[in-house]
Structure formats: structure tokens, C-alpha cells
Specification:
UNC-93_regulatory; 116 residues; transmembrane helix; 83% helix; elongated; mainly alpha; transmembrane; membrane; 3 helices
């Protein structure tokens, strides 16, 4: 969208982009909910309410600031937010991976110590 120059005869491209956004949202929403369920074990109710609250605050901010910003600025901000979100996701994945490794090593130490 940053380099594309819309032409009036190409309005179908906008419909394709909106459709792709809908498909991506349909794929990502269950993954996001599952991630919250995994991260906040025994606190699911608070986790899901915070998830939906954060999403709705995001919608509110976009509708509040959207009319006063240029489209190029909005796209750049969205790319920045996406980059921050991906970095956060990777940090959570690495943290969960290390946690599983630690639990596995504790289990192995326990099994070895019970044999002798």
C-alpha cells in the first residue's frame, strides 16, 4: 500500500485486500486466544477479558486518530505496531521454549536421582 498508486479502474484490488484482511483476522483470532489460554493458566477469565479490552482500546484509538492522519502515516504506524507485536510474540515463544527445557531437565534429573 505504500508504493501502490490506486487507479479508478482497479477498485477490485481494494475488495481483494479487504478479503485478505478478513481471512488473516479469522486465522489469527483463535491463535491469539489460544496463546492467552496457554500463557495464563488458571487465570483464563482475566486473560481473555484483558485480550478483548486491549483489542477494543486499539479499535477506539484507530477510530479516534484515523481521520486526522494521512493514509501513509497510518500504514507506517501499522507496520511499526506489527513489528513490535511480532517481536513480543517471538519473545514469548522463546520464553515458553526455555521453560519447557527447564521442566524437561528437572524431570530428567528427578528420574536419574530416583534410579540410584
Amino acid at each position: 500500500m505504500l508504493v501502490w498508486k490506486p487507479i479508478p479502474s482497479q477498485t477490485y484490488v481494494l475488495f481483494i485486500l479487504v478479503g485478505m484482511q478478513g481471512i488473516a483476522g479469522a486465522i489469527w483470532d483463535p491463535i491469539e486466544a489460544a496463546l492467552y489460554g496457554i500463557l495464563f493458566v488458571n487465570k483464563e477469565e482475566a486473560a481473555y477479558s484483558n485480550l478483548w479490552l486491549g483489542q477494543n482500546i486499539g479499535y477506539f484509538v484507530v477510530y479516534l486518530c484515523g481521520p486526522s492522519l494521512r493514509v501513509q502515516t497510518i500504514i507506517i504506524l501499522q507496520l511499526v505496531y506489527l513489528t513490535i507485536a511480532l517481536l513480543g510474540y517471538f519473545a514469548v515463544e522463546i520464553r515458553q521454549y526455555r521453560k519447557r527445557l527447564m521442566i524437561a531437565s528437572i524431570d530428567n534429573d528427578f528420574k536419574v536421582s530416583t534410579i540410584f
